[in-house]
Amino acid sequence: MISKETLFALSLFPYLGFLWFISRSPQIPRLGLYGFYGTLVFVTVTIPAGIYAKVAYGEALANIDWLHGGAEVFLTLSNILLVLGFSKAVQELRNR
């Protein structure tokens, strides 16, 4: 059986492929694209935060509120960028 850590690491490759293809599309709103890249930043921040939580506290990241919340800020910002970017794109299409 594959571990959740291995599955998590392997899931980065399809997401990187997704980012590569979507960044070449002229139809994707720039702000939305930044949101998708922000998700990658969230993952990049979460991995060392999870390691620190395990080493410093002997706990999973989800059990260390201040550290978990700090990492989740990046996901929240990514989601905001996605919503704003695609919302603007929808409004522009409606105004045509």
Automatic annotation (TrEMBL):
InterPro entries: DUF3593
Entries under Pfam families matching the protein: DUF3593 (PF12159)
Species for this entry: Nostoc azollae (strain 0708) (Anabaena azollae (strain 0708))
Coiled coil: none
Highest taxon in the source lineage: Bacteria
Transmembrane stretches, start-end: 6-22, 34-53, 73-90
Keyword set, alphabetical order: Membrane, Transmembrane, Transmembrane helix
Protein name: DUF3593 domain-containing protein
